[in-house]
Amino acid sequence: MQASSFASLPNELVAQLLATSPKAELHVHIEGTLEPELIFALARRNRVTLRYDDVDALRRAYAFTDLQSFLDLYYAGCDVLRTEQDFFDLAWAYFERAAHSGVVRAEPFFDPQSHTARGVGFEVFMPAFIQAAKRAQDELGLSVGWILSVLRHLPEDEALQTLRAAEPWLDHIIGLGLDSSERGNPPEKFARVFAQAAQLGLHRVAHAGEEGPPEYVRGALDGLGVERIDHGVRASEDPALMQRLAREQVPLTVCPLSNVRLCVVDSLAQHNLPQLLAAGLKVTVNSDDPAYFGGYVNDNLLQLFAAQPMLGAPQAYILLRNSLEASFAADADKALWIAQLDALWRDAGGAA
Ligand code: ADE
Ligand code: ZN
Questions:
Q1: Which residue from 16, 69, 240, 274 has the least number of CB within 10 angstroms?
Q2: What top-level class would CATH report for the domain 3-347?
Q3: Catalytic annotation on 210?
Q4: Domains of the chain: which residue ranges?
């Protein structure tokens, strides 16, 4: 379907299509979907004392100045996750919200080291993630592929140990990711663990070019062999890299509200996503850590489109289709979802 054939659709219809269309979410940390209300509920259940008196006080603390100021609170929040039931409740709450937002495919990250460091092992969280994903498929029609993400502020040896500990669970894990503090932790530090992941048949993705320089995007592609770049917005500082990303159609999983909340950009109106799209990059829109950044995937799409006059129906259709194409789902599933997307847009009057 030609995106340009949608050019005349009115803004209200575009907003409705953005919210209701089938879409994939490819960049969401399951620990980042831990809403303050659930933090308090799990703290009560597990008799954990929190530093905040109530949900409002905790929410008020979500005033971040950079990635690290967020990560400090995000890792602290994980402390209430203790039992298999806690991890199930966390994942299920996200899957219900996602399915109601039109998400047909989710590829959430989980950070094992945030849990194993507290004595909570794979045998606690993996059964919960597996059961939640199965129930999401059965009851919500939501397809799920889990991505194990290693923490880049820790040594590579610990990432290697984490991948080894995951081996009994690899039937339920589709890929390896790299997240946490980017500055000073270049992708090449993790070359061995990504080589092992390739040997194990896992997909590979990495956060790069969020706070880190464009060289980290190149390092993730060339040093780690990644198939997608998480964030990647700082690639726009490097014209040769932009040309390469466009030529190779490397998907970028961009998270607009995250970029504003972590001061990567000043405002949604100044976000460079329209420029990345216009340069022919395969851009997708995602929520990153929605419980901390003020919105889920549809909030990201709708607020960005409201803030950016350059974005209209053709860009909306392309972003939705990109999300499905860039997923690691089976080709037959992707073709089905794209056919559903096209039918919805054709019925809305978009086909010329
Ligand atoms: N972990 C959770 N969210 C992250 C982000 N936006 N960047 C790096 N690591 C993260
Ligand atoms: Zn992220």
A1: 240
A2: alpha beta
A3: yes
A4: 3-347
